[in-house]
Amino acid sequence: MIKKYFGTDGIRGLVNSRNINGDMFFKFGLASGTHFKTQKKKKQIAIIAKDTRLSGYTLEPALVSGLTSAGMHVYTMGPLPTNGLAMLTKSMKANMGIMITASHNPYYENGLKLFGPDGLKLSDKIEKKIESLIDKRIENNFSRPKELGRVKRLESGNKDYIKILKKNFPRDFNLKGLRIVIDCANGAGYKAGPELLKSLGAKVIAIGIKPNGLNINLNCGSTFPNKIKLAVKKYKAHIGISLDGDADRIIMCDEKGDIIDGDQIIAALAIRWKKKNMLKGGVIGTLMSNYGLEKFFKSQEIKFIRANVGDRYVKEKMQKNDFNLGGEQSGHIILGKFATTGDGLLVALEVLFSLRKGKKASNFFNTFKKTPQVLENIEVKDKSIINNLDIKNSIKTAEKLMKGQGRILVRASGTESKIRVMGESENSKLLQKCLNIILRKVK
User: Fold this and answer.
1) Residue 138 φ/ψ region, left for φ over 0, alpha for ψ in the -120 to 50 degree band, beta for the rest
2) Taking residues 21-40, what's their average pLDDT?
3) Which residues contact 75 (CB under 8 A, 6 or more apart)?
4) CATH H-level superfamily of 174-260
5) Are 304 and 297 a contacting pair, CB within 8 Å?
6) Where are the alpha helices (DSSP H) in 179-253?
7) What is the CATH number that goes with domain 261-370?
8) For 1-15, 117-131, 209-223, which range has the lowest pLDDT when averaged over its residues?
C-alpha cells in the first residue's frame, strides 16, 4: 500500500523539511485528532510524549495546536520511552497517543509514531485515512470555539510507566548483587532506565543520560554498541543494556564484552519460554533476521515466520498467527504477553529475570551460531531507483549465484533515504561477489 506521509514506522524526516515542520505537524495533529474523535466519549483525550531532540520544542506546540483545534484535550508527558506512551495511552483510556521521535536517527531528524486507544501502532488502512484528512481543507476539521481542547502537562509519566513494567514480575523480584551498565543514548529513556534498575536494587552505571538536544544517538546507544562493550569491561559489570533514542530497541552485552543483538536475545527468550510452557505458537522475525536463527528454530522445533521489516509488521503477524514473541535483529523485540510494541526496558527486565539465579549472561545467550551477514546501506536521492531494470537484473544474477548457499535481500529503507543490501552465507568470497554485483548498479 503506497502512502504519502507514513513510512514503515510512522512519519520521519529532516527537521524543517517538507513534512517535519510546524505547519505539517499542525496538520498531522488536526487530522489524527479528527480521525480519533468519538461521539461515545465525553472527553476526547490525546497523550503526547517525545524524545530529547532540540526540534521537539518546535514541533510539539504545533502538534498540540492541531489536536486542540480538532477538539482533543491533550496531556503532554515530556521525554518518555515509546512503549511507556503506548502503555499509558491504554491505561488512561485515551483516544490516541503520539510519540515525537525519530528513534535511532540523528538529532537533525524527527518524526511521529501514532498509537490507537489499544496501545497498538496504526494499521496501513488507518494511516491512509489520516493522510486523506491531512490533504483536505483544514477548516473542515476545526472544532467550534466552545469545543476546543485544553492542554495539561503531566510529570508522572515515567513513574507510572515504571510501575506498569514492575507489575509484570513477582513482587519479590530484585536485582541486588548485579552490576549493570545502561546506555540510554541521551534519549527518551534517560530517566526511566536508571530509575527502574535502581528501584530493583541493582548497582547501576548509567551513561548517555545527559541529553542536550543535539547528542541523542551520537556515538552512543544501540547503534553504537562499542560504547556499552567498553563500559562493561571497565566497570566489570554482569551485563550491559543499550537503548536507542526512544528506548524501543535494545542491544545487550554479556559479562565477557560480547555484543548481543536482537536475534540472539529472541533466541534465548524463545528457548526459556518454551521450557516454561510460556511460548505461544512460535516466533515472528523479519526479512532481516539472521539465517542462522531460522535454522536454529527449525532444530528446536519452534515455528518461525518472517514479516516485513518494522515492529508494527511483526506485531501484525504475531496477532494473525497468535504468537507471543517476535522482533528484529536491530533490537525491536515485542513480548506479546506484556506489551503492544517494542520496549527495550521491558526486554531487559525479562532477560534479568532469567538471570536472577546467578546464571551468567554469556551462558544464557549462547544459543545459536550466526550465519555471516554483510549489510551495506547506500545513501540515495530517490529510493524508487530500487525499481530500476538494471538493478532488478543484478539482484536476479546475484540470487542465482547464491542459490543454495545463502540469501540476498535488497530493500528500500522505510525511515531513511537509503537502499539496504544484505547478504548471508558461510562462503564469504561468494557472498562478497554477489553483493558487489548489486552494489555497483545501485551506486
Assistant:
1) alpha
2) 92
3) 45, 46, 47, 48, 92, 94, 151, 152, 153, 154
4) Alpha-D-Glucose-1,6-Bisphosphate, subunit A, domain 3 (3.40.120.10)
5) yes
6) 192-199, 226-235
7) 3.40.120.10
8) 1-15
Cell triple for residue 143? Answer: 472544532
Long-range pairs, 437-440, Cβ under 8 A, ≥24 = 437/394, 437/397, 437/398, 437/401, 438/391, 438/394, 438/395, 438/398, 438/408, 438/410, 439/376, 439/378, 440/394
Spatial distance between the Cα atoms of 83 and 415, rounded to a whole number of angstroms: 19
Residue 277 in grid coordinates:
510452557
Which of 359, 330, 347 lies closest to 177, judged by CA? 359
- Type and span of the H or E element at 271: helix 262-275
Describe the crossing of helices 344-354 and 262-275 by its angle, rounded to 10 degrees. Answer: 50
Identify the H or E element spanning 82.
helix 82-91
Q: What's the whole-model pTM score? A: 0.90
Regarding beta strands 203-207 and 11-14, do their DSSP bridges make them parallel or antiparallel, or are they unpaired? unpaired
- 406-412 and 303-307 strand pairing: unpaired
- Asked if 174-260 and 261-370 have one fold, the answer is yes
Which position has the higher pLDDT, 337 or 63?
Answer: 63
Cβ-based burial of 94 (10 A; exposed 0-12, middle 13-18, buried ≥19): buried
Joined together, the cell numbers standing for residue 46 give: 490525546
Q: How many CA atoms lie within 13 A of 389 on its CB side?
A: 0
Give 357: exposed, middle or buried? Use CB within 10 Å, 0-12, 13-18, 19+: exposed
CATH number, span 373-442: 3.30.310.50
How many angstroms separate the CA atoms of 379 and 196, rounded? 38
Share of the chain above pLDDT 90, in %: 77
Which cell goes with 222? 544501540
Are the CB atoms for 101 and 245 separated by under 8 Å?
A: yes
Residues 11-156: name the CATH superfamily. Answer: Alpha-D-Glucose-1,6-Bisphosphate, subunit A, domain 3 (3.40.120.10)
State the catalytic residues.
Answer: 103
Distance separating alpha carbons of residues 102 and 371, to the nearest angstrom = 30
Residue ranges per domain, the chain?
11-156, 174-260, 261-370, 373-442
**One-character DSSP codes across 5-36:** S-BTTBEEEETTSSSSSHHHHHHHHHHHHHHH
